[in-house]
Description:
Blueprint: E1 11-15, E2 20-24, H1 37-48, E3 51-52, H2 64-75, H3 88-102, E4 112-115, H4 117-129, E5 135-140, H5 146-152, E6 156-161, H6 170-176, E7 181-187, H7 199-211, E8 215-219, E9 244-249, E10 262-265, H8 268-282, H9 287-299, H10 302-326, E11 338-342, H11 351-362, E12 364-365, E13 367-368, E14 382-386, H12 391-402, H13 404-413
Parallel strand pairs: 3-12, 5-6, 5-7, 7-8, 8-9
Antiparallel strand pairs: 1-2, 4-10, 9-10, 11-14, 13-14
The site of pyridoxal-5'-phosphate (PLP) has 13 residues, from α4.
Amino acid sequence: MIVRRGVSRPSIVDCPLLNVEYNMRTAHRTHTFTESVIREMTRVANQHGAINLAQGFPDFAAPELLKEAAVEAIRADINQYAITWGTPRLRNALAEKYRRFYSMEVDTEREIVVTCGATEAMASAMLALVDPGEEIIIYEPFYENYGPDSILCGAKPVFVPTRADGGPDLDATAVAFSERTRGIIINTPNNPTGHVFARDELETIARLCIEHDAIAFTDEIYEHILYEGEHVPMAALDGMRERTVTVSGASKTFSITGWRIGTIVAPPTLTDAIKKTHDFLTVGAPAPLQEAVAAGIEGLDASYYSELADDYRRRRDVMYDGLSAAGFSCRPPAGSYYILADFSSLSDLPDDEFAVWLAREHGVASVPGSSFYSDPADGRTQVRFAFCKSLGTLERAAERLAGLGARGRSGGAT
Ligand code: PLP
């Protein structure tokens, strides 16, 4: 047996090739990470043949224009590393997009970093800008990556509750800010609550950021999936351009979560550091797919974006009506493509058991609510449904849930 020194809690595994036991140590920073609950629920969905409303990926086609452009780029042998912070064509298209939608002027050379998805964008930005021991404010319920992102850079997450309607608790936000605060993460439109941050909510948070010299990390990946209100980028507010890292990407807007194209817009002082972490982590995003996303931004007009939102509104209504009829308590989201639903009138089971029961007995997979909270007890009566699926899939899901009210309580409690 090979034993390394300094290993406090060895995990012993068999290595069949060498026929010895290795004592494999893993980094402390990973010890608090749990397996993704969302991917685990996908496994449960497959096991029971359930409709997978757990994971947030569309089951419908991407726009033809993007697919053609990707094929064309590969045929044209755009195969090698792109400039690490993004191809000139995509950066130009992004600057045009920010001008067109938000009247923001963005320097294509110094203020944009193209990343491997919004996921890498957020991790690269935080690694570049947050020092160990500094605090990051996170609203809960939250998208599951923000906790691990904070841990990766040694920061301390400070969780702040949201109101019953999904909006931020602004008094609690003011209390959470301190001299240790390095930044706040704002996700609008929000996963999982569907809240779209109102201008006055963002203005209050902006004032706190300025007062405490903190950075706003805004995750705006659902910026075009909006049913009510307007999408206000934090960076467009007075005094915030120089302290905001705006994260977005192509995954949701163009239904291409597997292409891995994300974007960062931030002032040059911040992007100078972000470019380095991004470069060392990934070198760059896929070159031919950057061309295709640029073609999409250049070539799709306003009607594409309004149809995207209209199509999602129809899906939202089918999902919301189906959940309400089945006995869940929930609100129709104002943006994004999730519904966080309370099932306490249907079952006494805790959320994780209820989600597995629902997949097994009713053939619909969801995500246990506890995975969106720092204290799992806060999500014990909730599950999240993703409605980024074709209308037919959602109608089938609604049919499967229809019998739940009648059977649910006794079925769920056994
Ligand atoms: N941010 C939020 C809030 C999300 O919900 C998701 C995916 O579900 C992501 C980021 C991931 O985006 P990407 O596919 O660009 O990494």
